[in-house]
């Protein structure tokens, strides 16, 4: 199926084991033991879902041509056999973030917070896919779902990456964030 | 209801009379005699709909702080009693547009095509609301729905506005566009 829509389902079944769910900011998500990642909106196989989060991949919102070239040269694909650890990090940003003009958001995102520069430091260890939720329609609980995959040996590097971003000016505009770490069975 | 989602329904009923539907580029839309504009996704009252187009209002994608201030100072509200003419212009942009980096799209949008500068020339005559469809999920027929309201005396100014934009570099990336003109009964 060729679709930009992805559904993340937390529940009692799913191909990823949830190792931890940590509420960084705002309201928690309900407990779940397993996670399934589904391409599309049709979710037939999930029993006893605790939550279901949807997002679409989309065009770049802040990245310049030069940054895009750097990212494309260094970023690994998802699904590497050695990347048995993953993280799903849903975040929501404040109304004051969304009311800023494009140049103001870009300045905070990169010139102040080095979002792209920080991400590039952790390539090619960490593969990433960003999903947008804010414009799906009505009443989505988050604005973004970011999915990361990495090898167990890169877990502490991944911890550094998210800590650097959370200390940035950009994160002052985050009012809900959940950090969900998952692993393949046996990893 | 407080929702950013709007539904435009073409059919046999609706509060706006469709005066013309002109296919500028790409596949036409089916004929409709009337248009209804609904806030939200719940569309209870429309009989015999020919088409139904959905979009959400969202944050600015290209506008700088300075441009945002100019727009907010000059742009009129929707629903002015004298604005008995309106236009719904659904457009879709090409895959090559969406794969460009943010700075490349901004350059084409404003530095080359003067999209904001052109729009501001026609303020406060023309009120406007932009709806995004591309990230609603799957298989939307358009990327944007723009709704414009103006007085009958400003119809030729509105024609100039859309002609200027269609002659721009930005419009080389438009591969589907329908120009739907509507009027209040009696106008």
List the helices and strands and how they pair.
Two copies of one chain form a homodimer.
Chain A: E1 5-11, E2 16-25, E3 34-39, E4 51-56, H1 65-74, E5 85-93, H2 95-99, H3 102-112, H4 115-121, E6 127-132, E7 144-150, H5 155-166, E8 174-183
Antiparallel strand pairs in A: 1-3, 1-4, 2-3, 2-8, 5-7, 5-8, 6-7
Structure description:
The structure is a homodimer of 187-residue chains. Chain A has five helices and eight strands; from the N terminus they run E-E-E-E-H-E-H-H-H-E-E-H-E. Chain A has 187 residues and is of the alpha+beta class. The relative contact order of chain A is 0.24.
Structural class of chain A: alpha+beta
Largest beta-sheet details of chain A: 8 strands, antiparallel
| Strand line-up across the major sheet of chain A | 4-1-3-2-8-5-7-6
Unreliable stretches of chain A (pLDDT < 50, length at least 5) are none
- Helix residue percentage of chain A: 10-25%
Short overview:
The structure is a homodimer of 187-residue chains. Chain A is α+β, with helices and mostly antiparallel strands.
